[in-house]
Amino acid sequence: MKYLTIFCLFFGFSSFSQVKKYDLAIKNAKIFNVKTGIVGPAQVILVKNGIIADIIKNTNSFAALKTIDAQGKLVTPSFIDAHIHPTDVFGDYDKAPEYLVKDSLHIYRQRLTDAYLPYGITTVMIMGQPEKWQTPLLQWSINPLPNHINIYTAGAAIISKEDRPTYIGHVVVDSPLAAKKKIEAYYQLGIRHIKLYWRLRDPEFKIAFKTADSLGMRVYGHIDQNVMTMDQTLDIGLKNYEHLVTIAYSVIKEKKDWDAFNTEFTEHYREVKTQSDILKMFLEMFRYIDEHKKTETNILIDKLASQNATFSTSINILAELFQSGSPGDAVSLVRQQARTKQNFETFMKYVKQMQEKGIKLRIGTDMANGGKSLQGEQLLLFKSGFSISSILQICTINGAQALGIDSKVGIIKKGRQADLLIWHRSPFNSANNLLSDRIIIKDGIVYQRTID
């Protein structure tokens, strides 16, 4: 009997020691499947060292240092903002610092995090920043922290040499050879994403794309102003585009169309003088192509879809135009705002068409107050006929795939980072719940902060 007791005790301790102890367990979690768009039954998410170690049937048979009972609430991947600029956070182009001073780097990193993480955005893609900021941004990228956002950067946006001012977030290449060398230099620094801006001309564009593609880098293009068209860049091999609103520039090409459009625009607005005027002009272009170039627009959308194009959204900045107008009398201001809102609705009609054709959209706010802007984009998409499932996909897996980081983030799956949102109120019950509180988990660690 004595030996039997010892044997049983030994066996019991051995069995207990084999039970894995996880850092975090989230039980009774109804997980949103970003691939199917369906919310599954309650399960347990087990996290170890910031990684999802396993997802098991709902049970209490696990050992974890911390357990969260989701109580049947929705759990989704955290969000990805695929187009930001730190200049929007650290100061605009006139007020941004020339350098990120070493003694203040922790302050800058916290400011960038505060603009996004409290809203459930755990990963951002910088689509252009001053090259003088590159070293600290790359250091933050390769040294992620649970209480800070994940950062990826494309370096400075690349443009050709020309006789006009250069913004601090751009870098000039004066020849195809210089473009090739710039891409190679970025690659040596560890940069794996490149942004080609619309001010990059054909010779430099082609060699920049070819060089980056040969190195396995991801290439993104902001294509407008008719320097290059989307047709041309699709033929070169570009698939990832910045800003849905830019497609009109690749439809209105001939001088007679531009003359007609400019006459129409100035009749209803004024000559273009400000950034706000430029954005209103972009939206007015959608009225023009809807009335005069619908066939050509549909052909371009079909071509983009057939070549698996992706687009960042950047739509909240356009909706803000309804709240302001050009200087002038009150009647004129109201008329302009009404027309701009109509133009926005026409634009969103084409956005919905692009999504239905299979073009992958990814959230890219491209403005200050990135977290609030992302929420605005979500609601605008819903009001334009997008389902909650598709909105959550646009904010998660679509961005991860376009950035080539879906092996790390964007989906709740074994082996992925434990970057998660536990929703107090499900947006599937009401779209307004997209604004509701949620538990934010970054690298398996709970991050909770009150949103202003």
From TrEMBL:
It comes from the Bacteria. GO terms for molecular function: hydrolase activity, acting on carbon-nitrogen (but not peptide) bonds. The keyword Hydrolase applies. Residues 74-434 form the Amidohydrolase-related domain. Keywords: Hydrolase. This is Amidohydrolase family protein. The lineage of its organism: Bacteria, Pseudomonadati, Bacteroidota, Sphingobacteriia, Sphingobacteriales.
